[in-house]
């Protein structure tokens, strides 16, 4: 397993209608490094966003879709998505404010 630093774990936030509705329950969705573990994701969120305290982390591996263009076949990239639940007394994550 590669040595992943905390700033390499979180790739980008997931901005969808469902993830925006989950923000009311202090659940935030991120695309993360495919080799990152739940413990590494928890540590990365707590270090990158000051005042946050993570209650639990759910992860899922999203496989790439098979696409076809004419006679050739290909696949889109596989991703790993993490849904982070913050505690009740935790601060909000600022990057999602104003969306």
What proportion of the residues is helical, as a percent range? 10-25%
Number of strands: 6
Shape: globular
CATH C-level: Alpha Beta
Count of the separate structural domains: 1
CATH homology superfamily name: RRM (RNA recognition motif) domain
Order of SSEs: HEHEHEEEE
Termini, distance in Å? 36 Å
Poorly predicted sequence stretches spanning 5 or more consecutive residues = none
Please compute the radius of gyration using only Cα atoms.
15 Å
Read across the widest sheet, the strand sequence of neighbours is: 1-2-6-3
Strand content: 35-45%
Number of contiguous helices: 3
- Quick one: biggest sheet? 4 strands, antiparallel
Produce a short descriptive summary.
This protein has 99 residues and is an alpha+beta fold. The chain has helices at residues 6-9, 17-22, 38-48; strands at 10-13, 27-32, 54-62, 66-69, 72-75, 79-86. It has a single domain (6-89), classed as RRM (RNA recognition motif) domain (Alpha-Beta Plaits), CATH 3.30.70.330.
Features of the shown structure:
99 residues, alpha+beta, Alpha-Beta Plaits, 4-stranded antiparallel beta sheet, two-stranded antiparallel ribbon
Structure write-up:
The chain is α+β, with helices and mostly antiparallel strands and 99 residues long. It has a single domain, classed as RRM (RNA recognition motif) domain (Alpha-Beta Plaits, 2-Layer Sandwich), CATH 3.30.70.330. It contains three helices and six strands; from the N terminus they run H-E-H-E-H-E-E-E-E. It has helices at residues 6-9, 17-22, 38-48; strands at residues 10-13, 27-32, 54-62, 66-69, 72-75, 79-86. The strands form two sheets. Strands 1-2-6-3 form a four-stranded antiparallel beta sheet. The longest helix is centred in the middle third of the chain and has 11 residues, at 38-48. The chain starts with 5 loop residues before the first helix and ends in a 13-residue tail after the last strand.
């Amino acid at each position: 397993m590669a040595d992943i630093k905390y700033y390499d774990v979180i790739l980008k936030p997931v901005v969808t209608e469902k993830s925006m509705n989950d923000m009311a329950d202090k659940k935030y969705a991120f695309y993360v490094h495919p080799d990152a573990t739940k413990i590494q994701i928890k540590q990365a969120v707590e270090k990158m966003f000051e005042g946050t305290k993570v209650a639990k982390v759910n992860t899922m591996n999203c496989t790439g879709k098979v696409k076809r263009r004419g006679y050739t076949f290909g696949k889109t990239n596989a991703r790993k998505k993490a849904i982070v639940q913050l505690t009740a007394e935790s601060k909000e994550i600022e990057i999602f404010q104003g969306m």
